């Protein structure tokens, strides 16, 4: 393709999802002077995962100075690792500040979209039967938006309350109850320490133990807030420093073995200081390479498991009965079952039906696993650009950084004012490179939510964030073709 034109018609844009990615794209459009765009949100409020996840202790495991838009620093974060209400409030305040809230159409679930070759436009379909047309389609629904509930025999027979952590039932009083928690992922390590003092008996069903290292959390004081306001460079320095530590953590999990040994030492120290009982400690030691599954951060997970009213059950779950959860050791009676089993991370854009050139379904294109050039563009789906698409998740840094780079890249494509489609040979060459690198990474060494059932890793970026920044800084228009 030739160089971008200097004169162009600003396209109409349909964004799906009003979380960090969708709102970030909307703000990027607004700041660039684009006015003809709309954000479709299926829920009654903005916020994405930070609207949905209201379980006790819900918080981010990336420090707040970095887990925020670079152009909208928050000088009044209450703590280093902010909790769900504060992050949601930050999103609302930022969306209001940049004037994009009135662009969000709430309670509007997009069920599908189809590209019309004659008009070179997208026809967007909603659950209530409405249709909208746009030149550009930007799905920004994320990877952690649909709760994963395991198919356990007998679940329908349970006589008590049952819910997923992402759909927390706040009407259920856990005081004195027998609570069964299935799963030991990122959500469970946050809510288990909060509900442990309430429960009469807490049984944690662990399939595989996670690596949990200390969380360097602290409250921010008025002094911090005053300094950040008076000298913004101090908060910027914290952001840059945290970003650098994130890059080192990625290296520790992928390529630099001495750093990996340091992370393992932190895990050992955290475990031994939190769990005095050697028998319990043995249960909590992972049997896979560090970093293969998501590395977790907590100061109270191990102490909570060591309490007298907690039992860690490592036997495989056979079924759920009316009374509780059965393993080989018998039925563990429960009044409440809570799933801490994560999300359907590899089912990108599901359950929406997206149809590209010639009616080709995205589900067909992704039959062997989701893929996209730079995590953004898919062949035969012109002017569809993804935010937080395949292979852009991170093991040790802030996804907000990645989303901002994607928004910047998409904006370059939009400024061209034409209908473009990534060349298939370019996309396939990129995907082959990414999969080759991932096959030799730590993430290929075990079963995790990073991987498809066929073993393909469709979630994670194989390198440093700096590499992604460099590769998306300027669009290679030769990688695209204009759709006639």
Structural class: alpha/beta
Task: State the distance separating the first and last CA atoms.
Answer: 13 Å
Q: Profile the largest sheet.
A: 5 strands, parallel
- Helix run count: 13
**Gross geometry:** globular
Number of strands: 20
Mean pLDDT: 93
Strand content: 15-25%
Low-confidence stretches: 2-7
Rg for CA atoms: 23 Å
What percent of the residues sit in helical stretches (DSSP H or I)?
A: 25-40%
Spatial strand sequence of the major β-sheet:
8-17-9-10-13
Structural account:
The protein contains 13 helices and 20 strands. With 484 residues, the chain is an alpha/beta fold. Residues 2-7 have low confidence and may be disordered.
Short description:
It is built from 13 helices and 20 strands. By secondary structure, it is α/β, with parallel strands linked by helices. The two termini are 13 Å apart.
